[in-house]
Amino acid sequence: MKFCRVCDSPIEPFMSFGKMPVANAFISEKEFNNEYFFDLNPASCSSCHTFQIVDVPEQEKMFHDHYAYFASTSSIMTKHFKTLSEEVLKDHIKTDDPLIVEIGSNDGISLQHYSKLGIRHLGIDPSQNVVDASRKKGISTVCDFFNRQSAEKIIDQNGKADIIIATNTMHHISNIREVVSGAKILLKKGGLMITEDPYLADMISLNSYEQIYAEHNFIWSVSSMKYLFNLYDMEIVNVIPNKYHGGCLRYYLAHKGSYRVKQSVGLYLDKERNIGLLEQNIYKKFHHLCKASRQNILKLIDKIKNNGKNIVGYGATAKSSTLINYCGLTKEHIDYICDSTPAKQGLFSPGAHIPVVSPIEFSNKYPDYSILFAWNHKKEIFQKEKNYLDQGGKWIEYVPKINIT
Ligand code: SAH
Ligand code: TYD
Ligand code: ZN
Questions:
Q1: How confident is the model at residue 372 (pLDDT cuts 50, 70, 90)?
Q2: Among 56, 42, 47, CA closest to 12
Q3: Cis status, amide bond into 400, omega within 30 of 0
Q4: With contact defined as beta carbons under 8 Å apart, do 405 and 389 qualify?
Q5: Which is it for strands 356-357 and 248-255: parallel, antiparallel or unpaired?
Q6: N or C end of the chain: smaller count of CB under 10 Å?
Q7: The pTM is what?
Q8: According to DSSP H, which parts of 275-392 are helical?
Q9: pLDDT band per the 50, 70, 90 thresholds, residue 74
Q10: Residues 322, 213: contact at Cβ < 8 Å?
Q11: Smallest Cα–Cα separation from 198: which of 224, 231, 234?
Q12: pLDDT surpasses 90 at 68
């Protein structure tokens, strides 16, 4: 029997995506026979309503010295976190010499905005290569997993935090109770924790099942976050939505009673109940939609290939690993995936072993069709690749539905 990682109740997956590799584990040819696979089985806990993957690979298999995701590859996300830093400094700082701690600071995409202003800050991230990139920018960063123990170390060396930031990270960490337990002791009285992740209701409404993969061990909702933080006497005091990564929620969290709870929290809790997010039925329907999406994608690709045209992928996203492997796509279907991240180029996609190349290869010889795997960066990519359409190329989008332009 399996148990919920938030409330320990027995838990049953509502479907299986089958055997999956770790989504960011791009590999070289010599590693093909040694690849790690696990069963990707999502579940929604009937007691605390946390949406989670039931079997999770060990965190050391996902976060290490060759982690493939460098957040700063997106200029739009860089701007987004600059805006967040402006909000933090203007609205949320109450002391003279504040300390900002970021959990999952990656290559410093967020903390750079504080470090440039000489504000006390500390990033913590277990992936050595992104930590190196962050330190090169002059950002103070510890290479470690955030948990109760590392939180104690941070407090010993730096004192408590005024602000804790954890964007696109809360869904990555399987031992999530350790994180909240660490945040509880690290956060000053009157301090604020700000997290932001893909939102379960948006994932369901877009049928963007690709959001589920190892590392995305959880897809959070207001109901499940409320339950989790309540275990440590903390509460959500505000919730703000945005459209990044296909729809995220930003949660503002604090020690219970230290802030006035905004109306948004109650409104979201009502919404989640009303749309059926707390019932199992919605996940049965979601399962059917996943199967239908797989059928439609395969039908379209077969049709294009039968017409003698070629297809490539644009953006070797971690997300696309779920889609590619669930649909059984290989390099027979997709010639290559282009991606601007040097660390991914020259390697092969996890599971399907599709070569990853630089976008230069794409612009040197435009393909007939390109599947936009980085659909969440559509605006930036379409802008960058304007010539492709002018030269007769076609984009295939598949979220929320298949669309060819
Ligand atoms: N905050 C950035 C990066 C998110 S990627 C952004 O919003 O874009 C998630 C990061 O979390 C990765 O760099 C990964 O190494 C890190 N991470 C994973 N487990 C962690 C843990 N237990 N503690 C701290 N960081 C962790
Ligand atoms: P992203 O969607 O942010 O995350 P995930 O891997 O978690 O699904 O990844 C975007 C990928 O797309 C990243 O590998 C960089 C790549 N990319 C490009 O190749 N060109 C671009 O213009 C942009 C914005 C991203
Ligand atoms: Zn639970």
A1: very high
A2: 42
A3: yes
A4: yes
A5: unpaired
A6: N
A7: 0.94
A8: 281-306, 318-327, 359-364, 378-384, 386-390
A9: confident
A10: yes
A11: 224
A12: no
Least confident piece of the model among 67-81, 102-116, 216-230? 67-81
Q: Which two tokens stand for residue 284?
A: 């049965």
Helix axes 318-327, 281-306, angle to 10 degrees: 80
Residue 240 to residue 378: CA distance in whole angstroms: 22
> Quick one: what percent of the chain has pLDDT higher than 90?
94
| Pocket flag, ligand 2, residue 381 (CB < 6 Å) | yes
How deeply is 113 buried, as exposed, middle or buried, from its count of CB atoms within 10 A (0-12, 13-18, 19+)? Answer: buried
Q: Ligand 2 pocket test: which of 74, 215, 243 has the largest number of ligand atoms within 8 Å of its C-beta?
A: 74
Query: Is the beta carbon of 62 within 6 A of some atom in ligand 1?
Result: no
Q: Which pLDDT value is given to residue 401? A: 85
**Distance from the Cα of residue 322 to its chain's centroid:** 13
Counting ligands in written order, which one lies closest to the CA of residue 312? Answer: 2
Q: Return the pLDDT at 223.
A: 98
Sheet holding 403-404, edge to edge: 356-357, 337-338, 311-314, 369-372, 394-397, 403-404
Q: What's the whole-number average pLDDT of the chain? A: 96
Cα 32-208-84 angle, rounded to 5 deg: 100
CB 333 within 8 A of CB 301: yes
Q: Tell me, what's the pLDDT at 397?
A: 96
State yes or no: pLDDT of 6 exceeds 90: yes
> What pLDDT, on the 0 to 100 scale, is given for residue 400?
83
Average pLDDT over residues 40-62: 95
In whole angstroms, give the CA distance from residue 73 to residue 160.
Answer: 31
Cα 405 from Cα 363, distance rounded (Å): 18
The response to whether residue 21 sits with its C-beta less than 6 Å from ligand 1 reads: no
Q: What is the mean pLDDT of residues 236-250?
A: 95
Q: For residue 336, how far is its CA from the centre of ligand 3 (angstroms)?
A: 40
Give the count of alpha carbons within 13 A of 70, CB side only. 19
190 φψ region: left (φ > 0), alpha (ψ -120 to 50), beta (else): left
What one-character-per-residue DSSP string does 257-287 give? TSSPPPHHHHHHHHHHHHTTTTSSHHHHHHH
Cβ atoms of 195 and 34 closer than 8 Å: no
